[in-house]
Task: structure prediction
Amino acid sequence: MTRLRHHARRLLASLRSRRMDDDFRDEIAGHLAEATDEFVRRGLPPDEARLAALRSFGRVAQIEEIHRDVRAYRLLDDLRQDLRHTRRSLARNPGFTIVAVLTLTLGIGANSTIFTLLDAVVLKPLPLANPQELVTFYENSPEGTPDPSGGTGRYLRFSYGRFERLQHALAPHGLLAATTRSARLVARLPGESQKRFVSAQFVSGNYFATLGVPAARGRAITSADAAMDRSAPVAVVSDGFWRRSLGGSGDAVGQTLVVNDVGVTVIGVAPRGFFGLWSDAEADLWLPVTLQQPMGYQTNSSSYGPVDPNRPWTTQDVAWLNLVGRVPRRDLAAVLPRLQAANRDGLVALAATIASQKDRTSMLAHTLAAEPLAHGFSGLRARFSDALFVLTGMVVLVLLVTCANIANLQLARAAAHARDMSIRLSLGATTARLVRQCLTESLALALLGGAAGVWVSRWGSSVLARQVLGGSGELPIVFAPDRRVIGFAAAISVCAAIVFGLAPAFRAIAAGRRATLGGNQREPSGDSATAGMRWLVIAQLALSVALVSAALLLGRTLINFMRIDPGFAPAGLVTVSLDPIPSGYPRDQYPALGARLVDAARGVPGVTAAAASTCGLIAGCSSSGGYRVEGIAEPGQTLYRNWVTPEYFTTAGIPLIGGRAFTDRDTANSPRVAVINESAARRYFPGQNPVGRRIGASQLDTEIVGLVHDARTQSLHDLPVPMAYTPLAQKPPNQQPSLTNLDVRVEMPAAAMEPALRAAIHRAEPNLLVGDVAAMSRRIARDLTRERLVAWLAAVFAAMTLLLAAIGLYGVLSYGVARRSREIGVRMALGARPVEVIGMIAAESGRLAIAGMTAGLLGTAVLSRSLAGLLFGIGPLDPSTFVLVTAAFAAVTVLASCLPARRATSVDPIVALRCE
Result:
């Protein structure tokens, strides 16, 4: 206890050092006064008495230091002095302070912004207890074996029956739950007459128990709530939905919401910060999986056979559920064989119902695998993770260039502070003490820049997140900067302070020693004065070359994507997103609904054509199935399909190559017809005319009447796929795809047509909720979000580093001219012409530029391969890009050299010699 009190007293003394120093000085002054009086009484004059008292007392400054060391912690006291010195030093140089802080704000702010997105999309674990115990299960298939939807290799969705098999097999070792992706449903809240869209996920009864998430209010969904015979539908709402839409009132539990015309009772509110397993798509509410059929949920699924829309998916072999298990890591390897066996039994049972031998062989080759789910599911991760890692590397380079720039400023200041350093060294200051003082100043600058950078990142990350998500609504909580971002900003601030603070600190101390030893010795001039600065400029130029090269490659990639022929005419095309299922429209009414919507759109002035379809263009929508094809014995040939109304090809601008398009005569009672694209013709009818041939789901009952041009219907990133178009009027009632899109070709700007189109649709179908109404050009731009985002950010980062490198080069040349003014004056006095002086400055800048560009181009050749996954239509070692970069940096070098060269020629030889 005595030792603890001793440390407490020393800590308190460190905090109250100024007052205690004053008290100790007063005490010393009292002792000196008494001693002086004593010597006066002995007969000495007052001045001599004062000196005698000082001699008898000892060195006052040393005694004060010893007393301070004994009573307090020296390190804290030194830190206080360093901070006071830093405050005074930065206040005396406001221009330097402002420039340094603003430069660091840009560098650290850019890093924090990109880290916020990287953390949200890739790094941040789910806000759950022990997320490292969470795993998801999926099926692997042999490479090249297609699934029913045309994909290969990896299948994340399972049927409800197989989920129950796996749940039973895992029961002794852990928990297994099921969930769907977020679905857009329609809800009417208590006390409201208007419907609104909500985001919902269907989950198994043990979902919340598996994740270890208790309800903040009420209770969570249980297995009893998800029972097949449950007659009272229930829901758990998110904290955000509870606050935004239900007023955050305590009586929200027990209220009834009408979701997709089904009344559900709110039984609980999820805790704040919980957004489900999909980190980039927060759910508003969670519903039991047994509400799938009453709610009309029929998306994000696949099957090997026909699906009855009038029966629940829980009773059919429809793969629509993602699985999440909680298993201790030590037990996972032991339990996986049990799960493999259970899954194999399910596959064997399913294979017995499949007619196609190819499909049976493919399915039975699947093997069950597990992977960690600590970071949750994410639709953005696969799409943006590579781009975010590349951008992270770029902003790190930006920060390094920023640090090099500030280090150059600090080196210039170090030369000016040589006399101060020499005085401190003469008074006994150690090298470690002076380095610590310089680093304290650098750290203060970095922390000021870091604090401002975090503020910038809050705005920047919000803007970028909206670009990534493609919306303007409220961002998911996962994209909000949090303490992880603040910690990251603090860490890079400290690292930046060390990077740009150490070299100037040692340079200042070395300059101080030279001044101490040499007395009137001059600071080195010429090359030796700028040696350290030149290396920093070379590094800046090299890093800038790498960034500018990357920016050019990514910019040309964006241009190449924008030049792709999508196979249809996007100019003048407006798309309207529809969702008739939540609006209460039965599937057998879709043909009539599509015809009414087309008639309503045609009645709007400025509309030249309109057509409805089950899948929109560049909407990420796809539907595929196994077909019989005339001339191929094996059934189950994969074709993508889209049900459309007449004039679809005219409206979309897809050219007809042969045969005919659909007409109003292609009705439910007329012979079944189809139009296929070139990819389907090449695959199934190579070298033949497909018009007049036949295809069909179970029998050859559909005649191909037309051939159209290939179109990139899902995304510009995907090559055209074999496609079969059929009339919406001939859509079988048991087929799943909904009526999701209305295409309208207009003669006026899309923004001007939106209100009129919405009004016309509302008049024709008052109960139909309409989603986005946008020009096709906007949908294409959204499809290229990754490329656009990466290209523009790379361009911004490259421009920042190019500007900083130019400033650095200009600063070194200007500093060198100032240091060499005597030499230049002597040269001119001896007959040197201005052009020769300019050539001397140009040669120095050329040497720096050539060294920096050479190092940068070599580094670019090595590092650019990491960009290969983001490039399209251009190689990472494109020679024309290197030529453009070289030309750009040559121009920057010339511009940065002009003013220092002009200043060098203006040196007056007489003044330079007179100063000497």
Q: What stands out?
A: Residues 12 and 72 are 8 Å apart (CA to CA).
